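Sharing a chain and its predicted structure for anyone who wants a worked example. Both blocks are below, sequence first, C-alpha cells second.
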Amino acid sequence: MNYFIGKNQDNHAPVSNGNVLAWLQQYDKGCRPIDKISQLFFKNFDMSSSLLDYPGSYVLVKDHNEKVWYDPYGIVQAKLGQIGEIISLNSTQYLNGYGIYEVVSHKGNTVVRTKTWAPPNMNSFIRSIEIKTRRNNPSEASIYPVIHLQNIVQRINNTFISRISENQWLATTVSPSSEGITGDISKAVTGGQVTIFEHSLLPVPLVFKIPAQTISGPEYSKPVYQVFAAGTSKEEALQELEKTLALINQSEHQTLKVWQAWHNKTVEIDTLTPELEYFWRVSNTLTKMSLQKDGTPIIIGFKPYQGNVWIRDSLWITSTLALAGHLEDAVRALYATLSYLIERPDGNYYFAYNVVTRLPNEHAFENDTTGLILYGIWQVWSLVKEDTIILDLWPIINHSAEWILKNRDSSGLIFPDAGIWETFGPHLGETFEHMTWTSAISAFGLIRGAEMAEAIYENEKANQFRQGANELLLAISKHNVHNGIVTRSMETKLLDASVTLFFSEFPIFPKEWLKPTLKAIQQRLEDPFIGGIWRHESLTTEEGDLKPWTGPTFWLGEAFLINNDVNQAWKYFNHNYNNSAFCGLLPELLYSKGRPRGIGMPSYSQSGIIRSLLLYENLYDRDQS
C-alpha cells in the first residue's frame, strides 16, 4: 500500500536544516490531490512558530496551448478553465535519499516538477518550479506561485514581509523577480481588476506573476524559484533573503553536496539492494532533520505532537544517531534532551516537554523514563568512549538509578504505571499495572548504569545497580512470565509487543522465553486482515490502537532475527516497507480505511529501518550482562 504523503491530514514530508522546518503535503482535506508547502516553522519547531496561513503555498500553471489550467483548488474562473481530469500525482522522492524533496504531478498535458530544500546554515527555504508537456510538444506557459500569508506588514518592490511575533518574521519573493499581487487569486492570474487590501492583522493570499516562458521538446523549463527567509527581526529576514538569492543558482547542488558529506560519515552497509539503500539514506536524513539548531531531537511529523520533546522518543533518536555513526550529533542531542528534565513530585522525571516553554505537557503517568535515560546515556558513551560524558551526567545517572532502586513495591516490580504506551491508564478507563516494559527497561538501565559507574570507579554503586537489576528480573520471571510467555504485566496474561525488545535492542531476557513469546505474539497480536503487529492485546485507548503499528512490527522482526529465523524477520520488515509512502517515509500506524497516521517520526518508524538493518547486518554487538 504505497501512498502519497497527505492521505491522512497528520501526514507531512519534512524538510529541515535545523534552523527551519517545512511540512509538505500531496493531499488536502477531502483527499484533493495537491502539491503544497503546508507549513513553515521558525525558530522552534513548534505549532506556535508556524509562519504560513492555511492552505500554505502551492502553484498554478497555464499552458497557453491548452484550455485546462493546472489548478488544484479550481480557483481560476475562466471559460472552460476546469474541464478535464483532476491533478494526478506521478512521483515523490527525496533526491538520492537526501534533503531535497521532489514532486512530479500533472494535469492534462501540463507536467509540474517542484523541489523544496533548506540551504545549509541558513534560515531559508527554496522551492524550484519547472514545467514541461506530457506529449513533449513545444508550448508557452505561465507559472503563478501562490502563498497564503498570515499577514503583510510591508512590501519592498517584489518582496513581501510578514510578522508572526516580536521575534518571528518572514520575507518572501521569487526569482527571477516578478510582480506580486495580493487579493483575489483568480483575478490576479487572469488579469482582472484586483482590489489590493493588506492589513497586518489579516491573512492574505499572494500571487507572483512570472512572465510566460517557452517550453521546448521534452525538457523542463528554466526553474522559477520561490524563496522564503525567516529571522528574529525584519532586518535579519531580509538579510537571509538577500544571501539566499545571491546563491540560488548553486543552492540545490550545494545542499545535496552537504547532505552527501554528512551521510558519508554513516555506518556503511554494503549489501543493501537499491531500494533498501534509498530507505537507509532517507531514514538517516530524516533522523538528522529532527534535530533543532541546539541539537534537541523533537517529533517533527504531525499535530498535536509537533514541537514536543518526548524523552523516550528523543533518546531513541539520539541512540539511533550514535548507532549509525553520527557521534557528534548524538552527543549534542543527548545533552540537549537531558537539559529539559524536571523532577516530578515523586522524584522521577516528566517524560514530555514543550520545546518553547520547556514545561511538562504529558497526559499520562509513566515510570520508564529513568531506565530509558540510563540506556540513552550508556549507548552514546559506549560508542563515543569518552568518560567526560559520565562525569558530566553522573548526577542524572545516579538519581535515575536510585529512583529505580527505591520505587519497587512488595512484588519487587516498579510501581504500576502506563508502561511504554502513554495512552493507557485511568483517564481511559484502564487501571495502571505492574508493566513488564517498565520494570525491564529499568533493569536494563541499571545494568548499563553499573557499567558507567565502574568506568569512574564508583564500584559500590555498580554493585548496588546490578543487584537491583537482578531483583527486577527475578520479579518479572515470577509475576509476568507464564509458561515461558512474557505478558504485559503482573495483573494480566494479555500481551504487549514491547516485551520483544528485551530479546533484541535490550537483550536481558533468557533465551528460553523467546520462542514461546514469539509464538504467542504471532497468534494474538498479528492483525488478521492486513498483517503487522498491534502494540497491545485488548487495549482500549484512542482510535486505531487495534491496528498494526510500525514500531512493534519491526520489533517482532528483530526478535525473529535473534531466533535465527531470517525469513520470518523479513516477512515483518517487508510488511513495513510495503506500507511506506512513495517517498520512503513510514507511518506510525495505519488507521481504518487504510489511511496511515503520523509520517515523519524518526524516533519510531524511520529508526526502525536503521536499527533493524544494523541488527541484520550484525554491525553492532550487545552482549548480555
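Comments welcome. The domain at 270-616 is CATH 1.50.10.10 (Glycosyltransferase).
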